[in-house]
Specification:
Blueprint (H helix, E strand, L loop, with lengths): L8 E5 L3 E3 L3 H9 L5 E5 L2 E3 L6 E3 L1 E4 L5 E4 L12 E3 L6 E5 H6 L16 H11 L3 E4 L5 E3 L9 H19 L2 H24 L3 H17 L4 H7 L7 H10 L2
Parallel strand pairs: 3-10, 4-11
Antiparallel strand pairs: 1-9, 2-11, 3-9, 4-5, 6-7, 8-10
């Protein structure tokens, strides 16, 4: 699509997501006159129950985990527009301006992060570069969720914890990484204990294996970290603030 110089936006839609007719119009209309917009999404609702929120945004929480904003909350009313940490790629728009400004050329989604956290990675990249991601009211999408991996939850756990380490190493300033690691360790241990208490030792093993493999893969992200570092524009304090609720 970007071979056409007139294309200013790329819209992404999962195969298990559907859109209100005005979804695209509302997002594009909102972006007009805002030169630093990277990504936009509207409220994404549960496909099967429109009274339940699937996502309003995504962010890295203060335990280092990729987190879905407002997930499973009761849908009451639209709120926004709101500048957020990032957007859920199940249904979103990315601007050409940001794609061309980010340092990895044609590799917009990191190809080493297959299926999980690649949208958190892209959103973090935009945020640390000082670009803006927005939740836009009135642009509603509907997402089934886990259509690709719902029958294999162990796979999703493994890939999420595997990719999480690379996400953090690639994007975050060193002092913030050091601040996060004790929280990450505690969070991982809590997750393992919880899964074991639920009688899911195999799933707990996937978490441990995913984190271990992710640590081994960390050097894959050192070069990309060096490429991104000169383009960081926001303070550690502001990143930490966004990691509280994602906005």
């Amino acid at each position: 699509a970007l071979k056409d110089p007139e294309v200013e936006y790329i819209a992404l839609l999962n195969t298990d997501a559907r859109l209100d007719p005005q979804w695209l119009e509302r997002l594009i209309e909102f972006s007009q006159g805002k030169p630093r917009v990277a990504q936009l999404q509207g409220t994404t609702l549960d496909y099967y129950n429109h009274g339940v929120v699937d996502s309003t945004h995504i962010f890295i929480s203060r335990n280092g985990q990729g987190t879905q904003g407002s997930w499973r909350d009761t849908y009451k009313t639209e709120f926004g527009p709101k500048k957020v940490f990032g957007v859920n790629a199940a249904a979103c728009v990315i601007t050409r301006a940001f794609i061309e400004a980010q340092p990895f050329g044609a590799e917009v989604f990191d190809e080493t992060m297959f299926m999980y956290l690649e949208d958190v990675d892209l959103s973090t990249r935009a945020t640390v570069m000082g670009w803006d991601n927005y939740l836009v009211p009135g642009a509603t999408a509907y997402h089934m969720g886990s259509a690709s991996s719902g029958k294999n939850p162990g796979f999703s756990l493994f890939m999420t914890f595997r990719n999480n380490t690379g996400l953090l190493v690639k994007n975050l300033p060193l002092r913030l990484l050091l601040r996060l690691w004790p929280r990450i360790i505690r969070s991982d241990l809590d997750t393992v204990r919880h899964l074991r208490a639920q009688g899911k030792p195999a799933a707990a093993g996937k978490v441990i294996k995913g984190r271990f493999i992710g640590m081994l893969r960390a050097p894959l992200f050192f070069k990309k970290r060096r490429m991104l570092a000169p383009k960081r524009r926001i303070s550690e304090k502001y990143i930490w603030q966004l990691m509280h609720k994602g906005y």
